[in-house]
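note to self: dont lose this again. the chain is below, predicted strucutre after it. 289 aa total, dont forget to put it in the shared folder this time
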Amino acid sequence: MRRASAFCPGHITGFFEVCRRDDLLSTGSRGAGFSVDLGATSDVTVSEAPRQKVTVWIDGRESRAEVTKHAVRYLLGKDRLAVTVRTRLDLPQSQGFGMSAAGALSASLAVSDIMGLGAEDAYEAAHIADIVCGCGLGDVAGLRAGGVEIRLRPGLPPIGEVRRIDGAPRLALAVVGRALRTKGVLTDADKVAAINRNGAAMVRRLAKDPSFDRFAELSWSFATGTGLASRPVTVVVEALKDEGRASMSMLGNSVFTTADPGALRAVLPKESTVFSCKVDTKGPRIIGR
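---
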């Protein structure tokens, strides 16, 4: 039995444009976002087996984990191996924190390390899985770049083009509404049309003035311009306008802000959880063997 562990940061998108191509490695999004130092840690074991089997546990419970399973099977090919993935998530799922991509990429990195493959194989597997399963478009490309990034050309680099933006602020995150299914948004033609109309304009504007402040400002314009910002998100962001930059995490009923965590906590219901974090510039990585 062989083992490896990997960590992958979470990823938050501020705005995006859906870009679908025939080739999955060219498919993705143009947009902008950032990696955070809260993410997914996957401990993986691989052993010989009479048939291929992939089992995934998330936070102590066996899970369907379709993105992670698709990515791992992509790496295994036809090899008859039994893979067990045990993933711990630092942030909630289906709230715009990139946990599907982080879980899949951390698992893929560990599997690739065990099998003697390269990190690029892991990125390819996770990118394709995220798209095929309808759970994301640009998270893996953003995670590959790390830090605060603008995705200028869709797809996984080197096909896609991702540029780093200076800045690594401390941030506070919070969930303010029920989970939002990414697949439901990305398969709604009217919503995608609004996303693409607004997202393309935001990419152009940020490319001319690349900074985190400008990114956050454009992110909130995108959230309101597309109609994606829910009433709970709007209430919180408006309440923080004098405390720091704030916007909606795509795609989730959640917010990110440069305001002090205490200021965010003060405008949330008492039972809400506030996550303190900072921008991650190290990127996904192996942490144990």
